[in-house]
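USER:
Class, as today's exercise, take the chain set out below, and explain how the chain folds.
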Amino acid sequence: MFQEKIGVRSVRLALGLLAGFVAGHALAQDAPMQRVEITGSSIKRIVKEGALPVQVVSKEVIARSGATTVADLIQKLPAMQGFTIEAIAAGTNSGGRSTASIHGLGGTYTLVLLNGRRMAPFQDSGSSVNLNSIPMSAVERVEVLSDGASALYGADAIAGVINFILKKNYRGLTLDAGVSVPTNPGGKSANAGFTWGFGDLETNRVNLLMTYRHDEQKKVKATEREFSKTSYIPLGHDGQSYIYDRTSTSGTAANVNVAFKNPKADQIGFNPYKKVNGACPTGFFDYLSNTATTEYCAVDSASTVETVPESKRDTLFTSARIKFSDNLTGFADLALGRFDLTARIAANPVSVAVPIGSPVYNQYVAPYLSADQRADVKTATATYRATEFGTRNSRTITDVGHLVVGLEANALGWDMNTGATYSKYQLDERYTGGYLLNKEFRSLIGGATFNPFLPAGSPSSPTAEQINGSVFHGSIREAYSVLRGVDLRASRELFTLPGGASSIGLGGDYRELHQVQTASAAAKNGTIYSFTTPNQFDYTRDSAGAFAELALPLMKNLEVTTAIRYDRYSGVEDKNAKRTKGETQSASTYKISARYTPTTALLLRGSYGTGFRVADQNDIANTLVANGVTAAPYACPADLVAIDATLCRPGVNQYNSYLGGNEKLRPEESKQFTLGFRLEPSSSVTFGADLWDVKMTNQVSNVGEIQAFANPAKYRQLFTEFADPATGIKTWAFIRAPINIGKAHNRGIDWDLTVGEKYSFGKMTLNVNGTHMLKASYTIPGSDTEWTDSMDKYGIDNQVTFRDIVKFGATLETGPMTNALTLNYRNGYTDQAASLYNVATKAAAVSQIRLQVPSYSTVDYQGKFAISKMWEVRGGIKNLMDKEPPLTLRTSQGHQVGYDARYADTMGRTIYLNTSYKF
């Protein structure tokens, strides 16, 4: 069966990736057998189940998923965990980037390719590719290799490879349009585009292709969903009533913090409005985390953020292929994209000095201090929030350009492919509201009428003219990554073995990565009030690699493939520092895999390999910058005394600290294996599973100051000297910088089952597939011996590793109509520990509480109707039961409170309609 039903097996690969979506008619059963290149190998072969677990998402599967973006498609696959989502743009400078992460290993270990070639990574993360930069309309299929360290693409693909294969040799004109409308307020989206192709490569010797698409996504406000409307959340736990308080002590009717000259005197804080009126202002809460020295009022800032930011996306893909002869074809592919996202978060919280003796101080601060306190006041600071100036709006425009020009040839028995790549990822982050002009705002708060202790709308509030004249509009930073590269790969058959002809693949590549970030003049010259200038850098690094792969069919039913690769990475050229940082790093890696078919119904397969990954340029080359002082005071360690006692501070004291890179970082290393099988007891039933295991060492990690001061001999590279700019006196200082110390061990099983039967009324297919995690352990940052994990719990890495993510689907094809129902499931987990307010005792809970977040399931439906051979309509409902995200008390991932957008659907029940017409 495995030798004969090539088309059926290709379809099964697609079925095994997305539960409930079946591509039974995506590949013709009677298609001629031809040699093609499969992701994870450089050798062209007949399409078949191979030794590596490559899963395929076909064009039909993509359409049936209802996904409107590449991120939406990829991040919902069961094997994906630990990725970054677009929604965290609310409260971060991510610009709406979205990443892929196979098996929870992270985006930096998952290699994303476009037509088998690398793209420029987004600047902020160094090596991850933003899925939003991939043109959805141009994707023909996606191949996912869930086994890492590909000999073809680079040993840094430790988690695996995701290869987006774009359309080619397309003929005709197709118009597409779609609309999506949630049944809850906000969040509407729409898209429209076309695909045009001219010429047949075989008959006309030329093919031109162009596809364009425009997408628009409307925002969803936090108050438009019940689960996100507040950061003051009542809840029950173990029969007790609690309140989870994530409100902010920065408000329009500000609190005040008073510091004293006596260093032994504790600072105090209170709300002057409450002191005067006996209660917090309307819309404020009594802050539930008050202590004996504070009496704050708090504002529900999370209610003003956006659950889903608004965005626009334009993507264009053009391709030209010319067949110069039967054995030589030239090609040029150009992908262009612009992603325009605006994220809005709560109004700006800023500190405002209250001059001692000023009218505001005398009326709202001094009366509530004792005589001794008034005599000892050093400073009084209002924790003001500029509510009347509007929300903080950050608009990030991302431009992507990806050009590949190359040749495909066949000569002297070799299949060859070579190409030159130029890929650029560029962003411009602009502030469009809520951020304050320094000079103008200082003038306003220094005026006689300004009173930070009164609510918005008070007579002392700024006028509309003052507000408009005090808001900054403009760019704060620009950043870009440019990847230039050339590659060559070739394969051919060699000698004959008992199982058939052996094959060899050879190749190499060279790449240069240039990453730049610059701050705008306004960001550097103090134009913006209370603003820290972004880091600026200009880094370049080149790399080169070569590989060889050999496929050996030792017997009719046994094939072994071996591969070896050598990679070299240069140091990082720091243009600003005018020198190279870090050393040239190189390594050889290998992989051996095998497939065995003891019967026609059973395939056994396995692989073992190694990998390595060099640190990001930022981790290596970041310039050392002053970063305050250590959080705690320390006695000068004996090891540092022995080196230079004159650099020690007297007694127990805080030491200055730096933030920087580490030029001595070594490559991260990995060892991984897979063992799996595919079983086809009949033509209508298939079942498969793959056990995978990845161990990593030398992971880049950060050592905490407590660990470093406890053992400075071990972490000697993290200590340097600091010269006080005022006195010139030199002392020891601690460097917060990455080092090679971490370890990780992940293991799991990817599995799928498909049952399909034809009946008189049509074809019914049932499919279930998922990922079962067995291990997700890693060492505590700064340690190589203390292990922890995030399995079914919110870990110290601010994420959850779900033991089970499953998709189940049922599809019925009846003539021109296809109906598909899909169930998406992920298990529950133990939440992040949180401090709650006990309503009964009117005090904070004695110990932190960890909720049990329940399992989460959604049901999707889609119906497709082929009106004619040219006209097709699809309609569906996502999240049919309108399942809300479960309550979680986590504190990471942007400004959203009470839910985790990574693990649940924040849009709610959504009705969509798509149509396409081919001329």
Notes: The chain has twelve helices and 53 strands. The two ends are 39 Å apart (CA to CA). Confidence is low (pLDDT under 50) at residues 1-33.
